[in-house]
Amino acid sequence: MSCCGKNQTNEKSAQLLRVGDIKILGCGVFLVPAPELGILEFKKIIVENLTAEETIKRGNNCQAFKWFHPNDMTPSQLQSAALAPCSGLCPGGTGNLCSGHMCFCDGTSNWCR
Description:
- 20% of the residues lie in helices and 23% in strands.
- The chain has helices at residues 11-18, 52-59, 75-81; strands spanning 26-33, 42-50, 64-68, 105-106, 111-112.
- The longest helix has 8 residues, at 11-18.
């Protein structure tokens, strides 16, 4: 699940899913356009109690998305992580993970958001 295109789920959550129950509920984080903020601006939305499969379905029309296993990040940890800044070019170009749980590589600009 990690590091390719829209689905930017980290390796830890992907590994926990592979060895566990695929119906476990975690958190989906979605990067969506925010035209009210300006040109090429985005916002992040955290949705609790989603399976990885449901997160993938919902993320299909988003700029990018991640799913977090509950043993990786809790909703309150994600809210705290959302306060950390994301900046710089995506490491290695489009599709590679930016540092920070709430950071996404935006494939249209190759910037971490």
